[in-house]
């Protein structure tokens, strides 16, 4: 055995251990199970062939937006990656755990590539108040005096 199943098992466990903290942080920012979010994700692969293989799978199996390629490292090597975003969807901790499990398996089975994780731009806890155009114009007139 070459150790790959263990690698993906430990990778998945690490993601599943972080998800509760991430979900808690999102909730502190006002996210609920009814808040649509677009999750950003990243995979790394050993080379171009693995990157292209994963991209073909994502293209045929998801409606995610993604791109792949190599990033030059300071040591002269290249880091092959697939970066993308999900479609907007509502999430819960259980759903995040299912998705992370799925993404880790997709990387293992269709790259191979390591699922490096996810991120999201969460809304502020308090959205800024919206002003009507007439309010903006009135404010501008007052400020100009």
CATH topology annotation: Alpha-Beta Plaits
Number of strands: 6
Task: Please identify which CATH superfamily we are dealing with.
Answer: RraB-like
> What is the overall pLDDT average?
85
N-to-C span: 78 Å
Low confidence ranges: 125-145
In percent, how much strand structure appears in the residues?
A: 15-25%
Class from secondary-structure proportions: alpha+beta
User: Main β-sheet, in a few words?
Assistant: 4 strands, antiparallel
Reading the helices and strands in chain order gives: HEEHEEEHEH
Level-2 CATH architecture: 2-Layer Sandwich
Instruction: Give the strand order, joined by hyphens, for the main sheet.
Output: 3-4-2-6
Binned, the helix content reads: 40-55%
What is the count of distinct domains?
Answer: 1
Our count of helices gives 4
Given this structure, which CATH class is correct?
A: Alpha Beta
| Rg on CA atoms, Å | 20 Å
Shape descriptor reads: globular
